[in-house]
């Protein structure tokens, strides 16, 4: 009977050892999977950060370009308006000459 108890105890110990080994192997596997996923997430985070920074720089560059274009358009509009105003207003000499000509003609006519 004690032999059976010893054999039973040895079997229980063997099963316990096997379960502990399996548990340890599963824990190592989970730890490695967790580390692998952490590395993958860290890599994706860096890629997303890089892409976001590149996107921000692209948007900033487009904004600066658009601001320059708007400034150029405004300057062009100012030049056009100044040119139109200059064309719409006759020079002072011409105004004086136009006003003097009818007065001279009126004074010279009998």
Give an account of the 3D structure.
The mean pLDDT is 86. With 110 residues, this protein is mostly helical. The relative contact order is 0.03. The protein is rod-shaped and about 135 Å long. It has two helices and no strands. It has helices at 2-88, 92-108. Helix content is 95%, strand content 0%.
Order of helices and strands: HH
Please bin the fraction of helical residues.
over 70%
Integer-rounded radius of gyration: 47 Å
Which class best fits the helix and strand makeup? Answer: mainly alpha
Low-confidence stretches: none
The number of distinct β-strands equals 0
CA distance, first residue to last residue: 162 Å
What overall form do the CA principal axes indicate?
rod-shaped
Map the helices and strands:
Layout (H helix, E strand, L loop, with lengths): L1 H87 L3 H17 L2
Briefly characterize the structure.
This protein is an all-alpha fold and 110 residues long. Helices cover 95% and strands 0% of the residues.
Task: List the main descriptive attributes of the protein structure presented here.
2 helices; mainly alpha; 110 residues; single chain
């Amino acid at each position: 009977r004690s032999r059976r108890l010893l054999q039973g105890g040895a079997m229980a110990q063997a099963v316990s050892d096997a379960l502990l080994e399996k548990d340890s192997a599963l824990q190592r596997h989970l730890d490695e999977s967790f580390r692998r996923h952490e590395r993958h997430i860290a890599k994706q985070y860096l890629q997303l950060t890089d892409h976001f920074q590149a996107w921000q720089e692209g948007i900033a560059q487009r904004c600066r370009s658009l601001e320059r274009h708007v400034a150029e358009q405004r300057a062009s509009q100012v030049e056009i308006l100044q040119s139109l105003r200059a064309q719409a207003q006759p020079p002072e000499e011409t105004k004086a000459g136009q006003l003097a000509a009818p007065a001279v003609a009126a004074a010279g006519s009998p």
